[in-house]
Automatic annotation (TrEMBL):
It comes from the Bacteria. GO terms for molecular function: hydrolase activity. The keyword Nucleotide-binding does not apply. This is Alpha/beta fold hydrolase. Pfam families: Abhydrolase_1. Keywords: Hydrolase. The lineage of its organism: Bacteria, Pseudomonadati, Bacteroidota, Sphingobacteriia, Sphingobacteriales. The keyword Iron does not apply. Residues 21-237 form the AB hydrolase-1 domain.
Length: 254
């Protein structure tokens, strides 16, 4: 990642550009570098901020989607941010949904890509063979349509993470919280514009999940990315950025 991580008052984040604010929310196993091509594309027109969600820092007894939403609330108030566009992948999308239901006045629009919140087919309840590099490699490749997107660097990072006992306990705690916190009954409360940018071949949050989000979110649009898995901004960044740019132009520049 070419951008320095800023650390101040208990927050860690990346920031680039000026203008209307886009807040990017990473997933459970997501690295900040997953968003690098999004930052590069939008930093000349927008202020782009990625807070590091404190999955490995919050007290484990309180760790969950709601705790991350509260953290996001504290962060936005600390940065004096209002009327932001929240853009979340996977768990990050789920955090964005929970936050928006509670604090819709902070959010001008929401973008979800491979978001949890309704259903997800993730690693499951455990990592039965986490000591096996090939097993972890296979699980990371499952995330993408093209297995080659799972670079050795990415697999190495995930392998290191899941073989850290403290971290893997937190990952499983967080994953179970996400599964328990189903958003179906709350989505009708979100009346701001929502753009769903979804991989047509997503096996983690399959296409029917996107269709259900589209049906339950009253002011939403659904954009498909063909030959794409769970992370369109990584696998097809040009297409993702095109959909996102059109959405931003419509809601911010009208």
């Amino acid at each position: 990642m070419t951008y320095p991580i800023i650390e101040e008052d208990g927050f860690k984040y990346i920031e680039a550009g000026t203008g209307e604010t886009l807040v990017l929310l990473h997933g459970l196993m997501g690295e900040l570098s997953n968003w690098e091509l999004v930052i590069e594309h939008f930093k000349d027109r927008y202020r782009v901020i990625i807070p590091i969600l404190p999955i490995y820092d919050l007290p484990i007894l309180t760790l969950g989607v709601k705790a991350l939403s509260r953290y996001l609330h504290r962060f936005l108030k600390y940065k004096n941010l209002n009327q932001v566009v929240l853009i979340g992948n996977s768990l990050g999308g789920h955090v964005g949904l929970v936050f928006t239901v509670a604090h819709q006045e902070f959010v001008k629009a929401l973008v979800l890509t491979g978001s949890s919140g309704l259903y997800e087919n993730a690693f499951g309840g455990s990592f039965p063979r986490r000591e096996s590099y090939d097993y972890i490699k296979e699980k990371v490749e499952f995330t993408f349509y093209d297995p080659a997107t799972a670079t050795k660097e990415l697999v190495d990072d995930v392998f290191k993470t899941v073989n850290d006992r403290s971290r893997v306990i937190r990952i499983l705690t967080m994953a179970k919280s996400a599964i328990r916190h189903n958003m179906a009954k709350d989505l009708s409360k979100i009346t701001i514009p929502v753009s769903l940018i979804w991989g047509k071949n997503d096996k983690v949050t399959p296409p029917e999940v996107a269709e259900e989000f589209h049906e339950l979110l009253p002011n939403s649009e659904l954009n498909w990315v063909d030959k794409c898995g769970h992370a369109p901004m990584m696998e097809h960044p040009e297409i993702f950025n095109t959909f996102l740019e059109k959405f931003l132009d419509r809601i911010l520049l009208k």
